[in-house]
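Hey, can you fold this?
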Amino acid sequence: MPQITVDYSASLDTVLDRRRFALELHPMTAELIDTTAGNCRTRFRRIEETVVGDGAPGQAFVHVEMAILAGRSEPLKAELAQAVADLLGKHTASAAELTVHASVEVRDLSAAYRKPRVNA
């Protein structure tokens, strides 16, 4: 926890340094929601084809979904979403030839979320 998924257009391959983004995202997230960066897990899913709006060329898409343990307030989740959106903007700013459509969703993990128990 948090479980973070980043879906992004293939056209952002040369723009979005995924590792650097994650390594900045983890400590920022940890500080905001009172966990450790070591608890953050981020996976990236490159999307070969995306269509934005009317399908005009030069459009790119990136969406960050963050699933965190329940109990955080809505204002805190909104603050986290904004901080992630700002970080995402920083990491896609060099995409001058693309219009980047970015979004962030912060949601609670289901009550059914479990991690394996480690034998002590």
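Oh, and this one too while you're at it.
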Amino acid sequence: MNKITYHPKDELLSSHANGDLPESLAVAISLHCELCPQCQKKLDAITNRLASKTWDSTGSKEEKDANEKAIDSDGFDSMLANIMALEIEPTHLAPEPVYTLFIDDKEYQLPYILHRYDNLKWNHLGAVSRTRLNEEQDTRSNLLHIKPGGEIPHHTHKGFELTLLLDGSFEDESGHYQKGDFIWLDASNSHSPKTSEGCLCYTVQNAPLYFKQGLSKLFNPIGNLLY
């Protein structure tokens, strides 16, 4: 299994556990945590802390004492004893469902959360293909596919750009990225992603790309295709 190097900040995980994120970012966190045991463990711990805090802040001491007495009652003990005495039947857990996506003659097995998006319509520009998943005012989520050997010309961002690598790999001036990596960029970053083996990404942006160097400026009129 490849090592995931780039992760969401703890603040994002906390906002996700609180249910504060828009769908596009909530899906990104869910996808990353499904691919990253480290962040899933963090998210579980944050969720448990929130649950404990909620429990501690509700109900009077008398109510809690009454609940504890109810749990310790003879009736509960009797019910538990009856459950434990039941004959155990062997169980067979079904495998976790996956979502199968076909793009450019390639099959991808992806986390099942993406099955909610159907009737995908792809736009193609050379080696790059994009399909819109969700639109929340200016914030848009997409699937972005780049064929082997493909490259996106050097650009920066008018807003933020989140890229979650679902399959394959790519690299830019800042590093090499693999499946599961969670890359957050803003207007202070500029790069030219390229891939030798091809890649499939889940992306979230709130503004078009801005191509800023040399001939790449010619791509600005079609920047919305990747937004």
